[in-house]
Amino acid sequence: MTFVKINLSGGAVSVGYLDGLLQALADAGIVHVRFGARQQLYFDVSEAQLEELEYVLLNQELTYEVGQDAYPNIVSSYVADGIFTDAAWIREGVYKDILDSFDFAPRLKVNLMDSTQSFTPYSTGNLNFLTAEMGNYWFLHIRFPGTNIFYRWSTLVYSDDIAGLCKFLEAPLLQTVVDIPQAGEELGRRMERLAADSGEFHFHSLSQPFIEQLFKLPYYEGFNAYQDRLWLGVYRRSETFTVAFLKDICTICIRNRVGQVYTTPWKSIIIKDILPGDRSEWDAILDKHRINLRHALNELNWQTEDYNLDGIMLKHQLVGELNALDVRTYKLCFGIKIHGKTGVWGSVILRYLSGAGERSWYQIQRTSDFNPNSKDLIVYRDRVKRADLCSELIGLCDEFYIFQELSRPRANEDVAPVVVDEEGEAVVIYQCQRCLTRYDPSWGDLTQAVPAGVPFADLPAGYICSVCGAARNSFRLLTRS
Question: Is the pTM of this model over 0.70?
Answer without folding.
Answer: yes
